[in-house]
Design goal:
Number of domains: 2
Low-confidence stretches: 1-7, 20-34
Number of helices: 19
CATH superfamily of the largest domain: Periplasmic binding protein-like II
Strand order of the largest sheet: 2-1-3-11-6-12
Structural class: alpha/beta
Number of strands: 13
CATH class of the largest domain: Alpha Beta
Radius of gyration: 21 Å
């Protein structure tokens, strides 16, 4: 993953520390008092700068003043989040609240259960959406190891002008393959689907697999299901897209590479959160008028699915100084999601169903391009999470963060293995991981 310091070894070491710890539940107290005068929050540097501006300079200072604490926010790059979390767990020292961009079930034994927070938020702000619930809940222990405040849709971004010239739309994966080849042959513009050890590739390949009818595991979260005919067909499709329409740079991309690729005007299609088109609107408004958003591409049977691009969720470390105050912060933040949604420029979708009022109306009222953003209003029904149709388990967490699926695709695209053999290799890798965690 680009310059990320998070490696397989880092993950395995951190997971070992987490598994060895003992959980100690903390009771949520809505009027909690802090043990110190500071609440420390660690979270990513948002791809939409306006959100961090609102969060750091408006929301947190105002909340801190109301609750008698100073809120300190440390922003961590997307590439370094997991490594930072591992370091805090190892040292048993760090932030009171820590925000992840993908669910961290491997840390369940070193975090405070969040059932009380979820219950409180559902009473106030509506039911937790299904994809967030299944990504943050352990059905075996009956515990929420994290609370998701937002999830992020992952639409296709495409150049409407270029696709219009060939008389096609990227509405199916086969049309993406056919259209991308025509565009590359016509004007040299490549497609932009990463095949790398990074977050965006992790999400994109899952969308492709699900649309083809493939899956990582069964609904009970116990049986590995990756080695299937559908998986092999999906690998072959992505390999064809790479060979016909991409360049070798996609093997070394990091999470911001496809953004830069599309915003620069170099490429004609990516699958990404709306930070890409938002950036284009600011940097090149004329080019932005030629860009569009689209629903997830359909597979051979018409199934249309995408992964959430990100599923942001907070954990409260057991070694944190202010667990009750940290929990109160989460509840109050979710209660302020009308403002958070607008500050993120529609990037952060609420994980609790009623936390944002008239969401579709807000999308349709976008000041720049309401027609394009309106499609996001129905994205929840197309969106899933790592481990679908089961839960995001510690085994899935390890598979995700050691990039088993991106590697499965990369081996074939690079010509190192056949699609059939690479699927078998991924199956063996996943079964080994599952066996370890099932013990």
């Amino acid at each position: 993953m680009g310059e990320s310091r998070f490696t397989r070894r880092t993950f395995l070491k951190a997971a070992g520390v987490a598994a060895a710890a003992v959980a100690t539940p903390t009771i949520f107290v809505p009027t909690a008092r802090a043990k110190s005068d500071t609440l420390k929050i660690g979270q990513w540097t948002h791809f939409v700068p306006a959100f961090d501006e609102w969060f750091d300079k408006k929301y947190c200072p105002e909340w801190g003043q109301k609750n008698g604490v100073k809120v300190v926010v440390d922003h961590i790059s997307v590439n370094d989040l997991r490594a930072r979390a591992a370091a805090e767990v190892s040292a048993k020292k760090g932030h009171d609240l820590f925000g992840f961009l993908d669910p961290p079930p491997a840390y369940e034994n070193v975090v405070v259960p969040m059932n009380d927070v979820v219950s409180e938020c559902e009473k106030k702000y509506g039911k937790l959406v299904n994809l967030a619930q299944r990504a943050t809940f352990n059905p075996k222990t009956k515990k929420y190891f994290a609370v998701s405040d937002n999830w992020v849709p992952d639409p296709l971004h495409y150049r409407k002008d270029v696709w219009g010239e060939i008389g096609m739309k990227p509405d199916t994966w086969e049309h993406i393959r056919e259209g991308s080849k025509k565009i590359k042959d016509k004007n040299g513009m490549p497609a932009g689907f990463g095949i790398s050890q990074e977050l965006d590739t992790n999400m994109m390949v899952r969308a492709l697999l699900w649309s083809y009818g493939a899956q990582e595991q069964d609904e009970s979260s116990t049986k590995v299901m990756i080695n299937s005919k559908a998986t092999v067909e999906a690998i072959k499709l992505m390999t064809a897209i790479y060979k016909e329409s991409e360049t070798a740079e996609v093997f070394t991309w990091d999470p911001s590479s496809n953004n830069r690729f599309f915003v620069s005007g170099k490429g004609h299609i990516i699958q990404n959160a709306i930070s890409a088109i938002r950036t284009l609107e600011k940097q090149n408004p004329e080019l932005a008028k030629k860009a569009g958003l689209a629903l997830p591409a359909a597979g051979p049977g018409g199934k249309r699915m995408a992964s959430e691009h990100l599923l942001h969720c907070y954990v409260v470390w057991q070694f944190g100084e202010n667990p009750e105050m940290a929990k109160k912060f989460i509840v109050d933040l979710i209660g302020s999601y009308n403002d958070a949604f607008l500050a993120s420029e529609f990037y952060n979708f609420p994980s609790f169903s009623k936390a944002v009022t008239d969401l579709k109306g807000k999308l349709a009222a976008d000041k720049v391009n309401p027609e394009e953003y309106a499609i996001l209003g129905d994205f929840e029904k197309y969106s899933a999470y790592p481990g679908y149709p089961g839960y995001t388990t510690a085994a899935i967490d390890e598979c995700f963060n050691t990039f088993v699926l991106p590697d499965m695709f990369a081996r074939v695209a690079k010509g190192e293995m056949s699609a059939e053999d690479s699927a078998k290799q991924a199956d063996a890798d996943m079964k080994r991981i599952f066996a370890k965690w099932n013990k």
